[in-house]
Specification:
The chain has 334 residues and is of the alpha+beta class. 23% of the residues lie in helices and 39% in strands. The protein folds into 4 domains: 30 residues; 77 residues, Trypsin-like serine proteases (Thrombin, subunit H); 102 residues, Thrombin, subunit H; 85 residues, Roll (Pdz3 Domain), CATH 2.30.42.
Length: 334
Amino acid sequence: MPRLREWKPFLIGFIGVVVGALLVFMTVARAPQTLNWPVTQIVKKVDPSVVIVLNSQQQGQQLKVRGIGSGVVLNRAGDIVTNDHVVAGATRLVVVLSNGHRYRATLVGTDALTDLAVIHIHAKHLQPIAFASSKTIEPGELVVAIGNALGLSHTVTTGIISAKDRVMFHDGWEYHLIQTDAAINPGNSGGALVNARGELIGLNSSKIAQAGVEGIGFAIPSDTVKEISQQLILYGHVKRPWLGATVESSGPRSFGLLVVGVVPSGPAARAGIQPGDFIVAADGIPVHQKEDIVRVFQNVGVGRAVRLDIMRGTQRLQKVVTLQELPMKPRQAG
């Protein structure tokens, strides 16, 4: 018993040292995972999927590089997505891979409304980028932007998602963009905005460039990139639903949308819609602004029928319209 009393303080102290050492070891072992954000690993994973896009245009007898942008490898077949404004007006397109190899590119298709384009190269051992759904992102999430800012190849910047659903309208169509404070500069356009797993959540597109404004950049959500690029690869253009009528709103609390013009032999004309009609609902959804009806049309799609409630004088009518594909406008050079 006396010997046990002598050893008891020693045993308690020894156990305390062991437990303390284990706690220190576990804290240190976890620290890199909890405190360090693995940007280096992300860049190593994503960098081979990001390319330089050179836009050369004819000037007299010479072919000169007029624009430098970025692109992202979609598949091993050689399809690359970039911004429409990166390839606009090009006489020749050249893609430079992360290993420095250069390839002539052909234009697969463009979509000015979403500022997206797909180009194609014949190359082996391409590394496609992994996609994540942009629906899963949240404000405050850490992001990495990779592109060729100001012609400096494979520039890496970091930041957060400032907002995930900035709604903007262009030519009457509704678009949702990701806002980020990761630095986006000329040349970054078409580059990758990725999450902490190195998955594409957006395609860098633009920034607000004016005095006193910093940290406001925009990226096209990955879900939009995937949908539009698939259509460009399949059809060379994007199929959008078309009513065949011009409508106007009289204000935020308007009674409905006034039909001010109908295209002869268009979908609206064939359904019996006339100038002067008021469209008050589409598939049962009240419409007050053009954006309201466009949202319904985008959900319905080309070749499908939509039910329109209209007022003609004091008479309420229903018209079923089969939406056609929006006629393509000739693309202007430059």
